[in-house]
Design brief:
This protein is of the alpha/beta class and 385 residues long. The chain is built from five helices and 18 strands. Belongs to the iron-sulfur cluster assembly SufBD family.
């Protein structure tokens, strides 16, 4: 499948999905989906280099959840969503199977599922995780990344009819790690996902997130929080594919940048197909520039093939502190540096509190305080407690 849109000069390829590495030539950096990415920093993740390196795992699985490893020929792996770039296709090919986390149908978990993945070397690691959330179940799943590695992964998220999933991903890597990830979500009839991706660490982090609907009533809340320090590249790309009627999506991503060479990229694509009458969708990206020498690229795209929708829109802003907010706080005796921290904390508060997992929320707030205080190592330590 290939999606295109038209700009001055002719059509531009937007999305190609496949399992076959051959469908994704080695990028040059001129392609629309690679033009912001520093390809030289993805060393090893664009080449077909099988690797025996692995991440170490720590898990907490409540009753009603199982974790198994399956081989590449397992029938479930033939039903997961296709990927959208070369890194994803290589990860599926070279991981030679997947780790499957299964939430039983009708289960209501008494605590979050927690998967902690830790890297301890510079070797390339390929990985595929499948979250298989059974019909009418209720689950919270947290996936945390730490340590250092060069990790290319695919996370296939299957949310069956009537199920409700809260998904949180935390990228708390050491400063030299590289992480390229696909998160591919498939929602069944009346299924709901609330996904939040938090990116703090790493040298380069590139996330491609996709949502597809297989029945009416699907609801996707996609959120992200990122803070880029000097020299870091953090990139988040989303494609929400509305092909079923009467479904909803809401995308909110917020980022802050500080330090020379900090670079963030957000690309939000929403497709409303002719068959998706009754769609309600909105996407927003906001970036807060804290110092000079940073760069934030923000590109929202919306393509609509039917006029029979409830609503569709997008917004993107990049700017410095709100002077009125700072003046208000300083006028009440709060020093300027502390006032700035309070403004940034408030900027992210909505996204953190929507997670609904108190311990994780507190760790993230502590990490943000450390980041704003110029202590990135302390921030990573706080988030990985």
């Amino acid at each position: 499948m290939t999606e295109t849109y038209t700009i001055e000069g002719g059509p531009v390829e937007l999305h190609r999905s496949s399992f076959d590495v051959a469908d994704f030539p080695l990028p040059t950096g001129r392609e629309e989906d690679w033009r912001f990415t520093p390809l030289d920093r993805l060393r090893g993740l664009l080449e077909d280099q099988p690797s025996g390196a692995e991440l170490s795992w720590t898990t907490d699985l409540p009753e009603g959840v199982t974790l198994t490893s399956v081989g590449a020929e397992d029938a479930l792996l033939r039903t997961v969503p296709k990927v959208f770039d070369r890194v994803g296709a290589l990860a599926l090919q070279n991981s030679t199977g997947a780790v499957v986390v299964k939430v039983a149908a009708n289960a209501e978990l008494d605590r979050p599922v927690v998967l902690k993945l830790h890297g301890s070397g510079a070797d390339v690691v390929w990985g595929h995780i499948v979250l298989d959330v059974g019909a009418n179940s209720r689950a919270q799943i947290v996936i945390e990344h730490s340590g250092t590695t060069r990790y290319a992964g695919v996370l296939s998220v299957l949310v069956a009819d009537g199920a409700k999933l809260t998904l949180v991903g935390v990228q708390g890597w050491d400063r030299d790690a590289v992480h390229a990830q696909h998160v591919n979500v498939r929602l069944g009839k009346d299924a709901t996902i609330a996904s939040t991706q938090v990116t703090l660490g790493g040298d380069l982090v590139r996330f491609v997130e996709n949502v597809e609907y297989t029945g009416t009533g699907g609801d996707a809340e996609m959120a992200g929080l990122y803070i880029a320090d000097a020299g870091q590249h953090q990139e988040h790309r989303l494609f929400v594919d509305h092909s079923a009627p009467k479904c909803r999506s809401n995308v909110v991503y917020k980022g802050a940048l500080q330090g020379e060479g900090a670079h963030t990229v957000w690309v939000g694509d929403v497709m409303i197909r002719a068959t998706a009458e009754g769609t309600d969708t909105y996407e927003m990206n906001r970036n807060l520039v804290l110092t000079d020498g940073t760069r934030a690229d923000s590109v929202p795209n919306l393509e609509i093939e039917t006029g029979e929708i409830l609503g569709a829109g997008h917004a993107s802003t990049t700017g410095r502190f709100d002077d009125e907010q700072l003046f208000y706080l300083q006028a009440r005796g709060i020093p300027e540096e502390e006032a700035r921290r309070l403004v940034v904390r408030g900027f992210f508060a909505e996204l953190i509190h929507r997670i609904g997992i108190p311990d994780l929320q507190e760790r993230l707030l502590t990490a943000i305080e450390a980041e704003l205080g110029g202590e990135p190592e302390a921030a990573i330590g706080a988030v990985n407690q």
